[in-house]
């Protein structure tokens, strides 16, 4: 079997016998590693038929027959000449058939190599897709990501309550957009910016500040640590303290006027979502500690 006709599984088997680690390698990489290993000691595997396609063929010695000289006593008869002509014609037809068979084998080998390459590319893409899915799962399965998503959900509901969607916008003579946002409310400090900043302070700023300084997960300072390590340790915010502080402040903002005078507006916007997200955040923080 030629090298191009070999499948990836065959190359993996040969590489394993040679002591080559093939994890994460493509077909052509495995082929190159096998060639490099055999080039180091070709005589050790020269008798193994499995490695013959990777070893350079030895030059065959050509033997030449000495043709009879002009003074030779060999006599040529017509019968011998006719037999030689017949055998020559037979050998010519056999040579043509052998050449056709070799051409067909080469075409089949090329097609099989293309098919193996396409199959290897397909499985490589599957491996990359699975690796990407694992990366996304690892990023989503964190307390920080769950907390961020809950804050974005609450912020979207607050913005939906603060910005009225009652405008009609005409696009030419044929199209009209109904229920477009009225962005003129952004100019109002009383009806837009004050409740929005009150929510951000109660849901993000103050809990982050408290979770930074009251941090049960922060490591004790070590001697001879690098500045980059010190900065990385200083960025940590305790998710448990963050969730508890957030739910307490939002409870005050939704039930009293201690934080904002727009209590009814915020409560109608987010409802009981902050309580549910706080419970989830506290449970996840306790689970991951």
UniProtKB/TrEMBL annotation:
It comes from Blastobotrys adeninivorans (Yeast). This is ARAD1A13068p. GO terms for cellular component: membrane. The lineage of its organism: Eukaryota, Fungi, Dikarya, Ascomycota, Saccharomycotina. Keywords: Membrane, Transmembrane, Transmembrane helix. The keyword Cell inner membrane does not apply. The chain crosses the membrane at residues 143-163, 196-215, 236-254, 266-287. Residues 37-97 are annotated as: Disordered. The keyword tRNA-binding does not apply. It comes from the Eukaryota. InterPro entries: Put_GTT3 (IPR038872).
């Amino acid at each position: 079997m030629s090298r191009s006709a070999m499948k990836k599984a065959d190359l993996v088997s040969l590489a394993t016998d040679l002591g080559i680690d093939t994890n994460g390698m493509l077909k052509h990489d495995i082929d190159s590693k096998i060639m490099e290993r055999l080039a180091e000691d070709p005589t050790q595997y020269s008798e193994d038929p499995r490695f013959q396609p990777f070893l350079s063929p030895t030059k065959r010695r050509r033997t030449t027959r000495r043709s009879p000289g002009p003074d030779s006593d060999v006599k040529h008869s017509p019968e011998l000449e006719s037999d030689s002509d017949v055998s020559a014609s037979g050998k010519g037809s056999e040579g043509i058939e052998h050449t056709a068979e070799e051409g067909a084998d080469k075409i089949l080998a090329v097609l099989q190599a293309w098919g193996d390459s396409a199959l290897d590319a397909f499985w490589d893409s599957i491996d990359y897709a699975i690796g990407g899915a694992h990366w996304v799962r690892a990023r989503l399965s964190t307390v920080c990501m769950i907390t961020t998503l809950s804050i974005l959900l609450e912020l979207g509901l607050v913005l939906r309550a603060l910005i009225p969607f009652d405008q009609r916008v005409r696009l030419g003579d044929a199209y009209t957009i109904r229920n477009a946002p009225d962005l003129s409310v952004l100019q109002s400090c009383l009806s837009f910016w004050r409740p929005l900043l009150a929510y951000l302070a109660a849901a993000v700023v103050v809990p982050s500040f408290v979770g930074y300084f009251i941090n049960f997960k922060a490591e004790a300072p070590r001697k001879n640590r690098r500045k980059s390590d010190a900065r990385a340790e200083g960025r940590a915010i305790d998710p448990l303290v963050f969730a508890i502080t957030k739910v307490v402040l939002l409870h005050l903002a939704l039930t009293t006027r201690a934080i904002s005078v727009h209590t009814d507006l915020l409560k109608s916007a987010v409802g009981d979502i902050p309580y549910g997200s706080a419970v989830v955040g506290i449970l996840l923080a306790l689970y991951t500690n």
